[in-house]
TrEMBL record, chain A:
This is BMP family ABC transporter substrate-binding protein. It comes from the Bacteria. The keyword 4Fe-4S does not apply. Residues 26-310 form the ABC transporter substrate-binding protein PnrA-like domain. Residues 1-22 form the signal peptide. It holds the Pfam family Bmp. It comes from Metarhizobium album. One of its GO terms (cellular component) is plasma membrane. Keywords: Signal.
TrEMBL record, chain B:
It holds the Pfam family BPD_transp_2. It comes from Metarhizobium album. This is ABC transporter permease. It is a multi-pass membrane protein. Signal peptide: none annotated.
Amino acid sequence: MKKLILALATSAAVLGFAAAAAAEDKTKICFIYVGSKTDGGWTQAHDLGRQALQEKFGDKIETPFLESVPEGPDAERAIERMARSGCALIFTTSFGFMDATVKIAAKFPDVKFEHATGFKSSDNLATYNSRFYEGRYIQGQIAAKMSQKGVAGYIASFPIPEVVMGINAFMHGAQSVNPDFKVKVIWANTWFDPGKEADAAKALIDQGVDILTQHTDTTAPMQVATERGIKAFGQASDMIKAGPETQLTAIVDTWGAYYIKRTQAVLDGTWTSGQIWDGLKDGILTMAPYTNMPDDVKKMAEETEAKIKSGELHPFTGPIKKQDGSDWLKDGEKADDGTLLGMNFYIAGVDDKLPQ
Amino acid sequence: MGIVEAILLTVITAATPLVLAAIGELVTERSGVLNLGVEGMMIMGAALAFAATQVTGSPYIGILAGIVCGALFSLLFGFLTLTLVANQVATGLALTILGLGISGQIGEPYVGMSGIKLQPIVIPVLADIPFIGPLLFRQDLIFYISIALIIGVHWFLFHSRAGLKLRAIGDSHGSAHALGIHVIRTRYLAVMFGGACAGLAGAQLSLVYTPQWVENMSAGRGWIALALVVFASWRPGRVLAGGYLFGAVSISQLHAQALGIGIPSQFLSALPYAATIVVLILISHNRRVTLINTPASLGKPFVPDR
């Protein structure tokens, strides 16, 4: 029933979109969203990127989008209709659209596709992702400076490489300041459940952590931290409104910079495929203002951010041992992207057993 | 405040919306109507309660808005299934999808706003009892209502004439009709009571549990409440026990993870569901008693012969 209604809704949206698009001759840059554009998290960040793109190019382009497209066969239909309607470049903004995007990209060799956070590319299909771990390293350093007890709480979603990488980066950043720093991890097994995220935050605080960070999507943990009077980090968007006295900084997804860069390439005829993984220096993620901390901590964070941007510092630089005590990176050795993208182990010091 | 007390406080907050939505659905189902739209009514209540609180500045008006909204939304279900005799299962599912959609629209201006939290009401004297005072007598209004509803519904169903009639309708609407009991009218009221309770549960989510609005914030709690009613074999006391057991295991597994005891988190996440089902099956093992408590006309359409 739910599937049917969603399918109908999707078809209706696609039909309306196709009709409206027929008469125009502007370059079309199209977007497929998995959620609603006001979800306050992942999809909203992409839509803000789309708005920045539209603003930048004004009349030269138009940026139609489809929201709440379910992953699966419906996604394939939605992407195909977009491709038929004359889009020059289509961004599919969820990991679960991967196979659908691959299939449609093969059918339409003249249309360019970009798939977020995936790993399958081809001549007309690029992948793009953000080096969130750079921000997590900075957060780890701040946490180690700000925590009285030397223990931070980490609300994680699912044990996928992306999230494990974040925990390790946070841990390594904290260790660079305080080698004895501890991180307590709770796996919520959801991206999105305000109640459960709040419960996890309460459990961590009851067990004595005095800094909170999260890799889930809602501001509920920030609210709990405010209630209990401890500091916390925001996730995906600037959550300062939920915790004006609480938020230290946040990793903010700013896809707009990337969308502008790639659209410019299409307009110039210089677009090439690839597996693109941008970081702080490219502006695909930014740090929300460093607030609620003393000046020396703020200065340290800003210096680290500058070093990462200039390439002087790679957050995963050896010596780093794995949790089981074996060597991962030798002194001065930097982690390669392949290992990071498939990360399935903790580094030494994380106080948790990685779910397999 | 000790760690046990802290855990129990979290459990109470987590269990209250489940207990509220379940006790409402219990009355609906006891009258023979299966409303699968609990999730939809709950999320509508959450959205309206948050919006009304933001507009008026008073969470008590928010609570009222949640209750009224849940009841009105369930009236749509009542009209379709009781008057037009539409299929209850399909209509209930549609109500959930509709609720999720409309609440997203209503809530759109409020995304990212910090909410106003419903403050606790301290009951004099009782609140000073060590340990149980802070747990039970320094709570918010919605918690007190949830306990009162469990006691009230138990009394209504098993100790009042009106409750007897309602159960009679749920067991055999034909016979009840022949005895001159108003089947459709009673069912309308039962459906609206269920809607009001689900709306109140939603208000608890957006005013107490996590004072904010995000789309789809009920995150499946309506479905858990529905399952609780069945596994509690339609007994109010067991709904209370099941809801609190589910809450307790959910919170304990988070603490177990934070302690780092090394049990896979996927297993721990499934534990609340497994534990609640096992315990409720064990206490309802007496098949004769279970059969007596199951509304025999549940989900069946009723068309009065004129």
